[in-house]
Amino acid sequence: MLRAAQLPSLPGSTGTMDPVMTTTATSNAAGSAAWADTLLLSFAQAGYVRAEPAILQPAEPFLDLSGEDIRKSLYLTTDLSGEELCLRPDLTIPVARDYLASTRAGQPAGFSYLGPVFRYRSGQASEFLQAGIESFGRQDRAAADAEMLALALEATAAFGVNDVEIRTGDVALFNALLDALDLYPVWRRRLIKDFNRKISLEQDLERLAAATTATRSEYEGVLAALAGSDRKAALAFVTDLMSIAGTTNVGGRTTAEIADRFLEQSTLKGGALPREAITVLKRFLSISGNPDDAVAELRALTADAKLDLTAAIDQFESRVGFLAARGIDVKLARFSTAFGRGLDYYTGFEFELHHTGNGAEPLVAGGRYDGLMTQLGSVEPIPAVGFSVWVDALTRIGRKVGA
């Protein structure tokens, strides 16, 4: 038997589902049905098989792998064995888990879906429809990325919405730059975390540039013990400390997050992030515009800084070519090296489609997440890319456009 769902991270919330919001969501779902049927038919015609993962999911993958916004909005519960479960807040991880449990795991396979997801959203329905596509196992990454964006544009067109802005980024370029700069691993993790959480990287870069040797901490002994440790050793050390204390989290932070924070502070004791690296990072993060121009700027940056990002830039340029081959006017797409979607599992291409003039709410969003499958238990890496369609938002705008 399951106890009432809870939202421990949301002050003032009981965590129970709001019946008014649920009724509203059900009504909206009914109103979206005709559009959604058309959408699913187009996905099926493109070769994507319908997937219907369970609504109740293990909470751990979402807590470990999703972005902070999703983690804080989960509806959580436990079963009699003590396993923590949640109502699915998104369909990418559930579809991926079902694929890995199937006989097709490791082979190229494409899936489409349509169903309710559940997230706490202040002032909005906590249950809402999500549709989308997930593509697994394709080695032709640039072509698969381009296919996702093309199908995403077809999805908005299915709702009668053709006036959209295309926003793209590529976290693989950022990761490749950090590798080329040969930063301390803890600095690399911190900058990637900032990037994924859409925190101002420029502000954090300035903090990392400041001298930290004079900073005192109530955990000086712990920091000294961690000096020179790698992440595995730091995690084992902090796990032991928390086991002695009889706890598994502090202030909502997991053992891994606490270990990362201690390791970060310990590393910073040894000195600041080099000014030369900050200069390169700032120049990199300022690159934006149409993809063709961005490729030229990236190659100029790497030549000036004497860094090798050839493989990542070549992959980016190849994707641009496949986008053009699919009839997408790449000069109308906005690319930014600083663009990120706030989800920790993305590893490459990322994109959002917005109704022109609406900067805040994406209609379709997705990207590449090659690392997720091994994090979910796959022995071998499996390429993966996909997108989600915000059905209610598209329905609402489609009605206005058609009015």
TrEMBL record:
Give positions of region: Disordered.
1-21
Per its record, what are the GO molecular function terms?
A: glycosyltransferase activity; histidine-tRNA ligase activity
Q: Which residues does the record give as L-histidine binding sites?
A: 90-92, 119, 130, 134, 341, 345-346
Q: Which InterPro entries match?
A: aa-tRNA-synth_II/BPL/LPL, HisRS-like_core, HisRS/HisZ
Q: Report domain Class II Histidinyl-tRNA synthetase (HisRS)-like catalytic core positions.
A: 33-228, 271-394
Which SUPFAM superfamilies does this entry report, sorted A to Z? Class II aaRS and biotin synthetases (SSF55681)
GO annotation (BP), single: histidyl-tRNA aminoacylation
Which GO terms of the cellular component aspect does the record hold? Answer: cytoplasm
Keyword line: Amino-acid biosynthesis, Glycosyltransferase, Histidine biosynthesis, Transferase
Q: Which Pfam families match?
A: tRNA-synt_His
**Has the keyword Amino-acid biosynthesis been applied to this entry?**
yes
NCBIfam families xrefs: PRK12295.1-6
The identity of this protein, by name, is ATP phosphoribosyltransferase regulatory subunit
In its UniProt entry, the species of origin is given as Bradyrhizobium daqingense
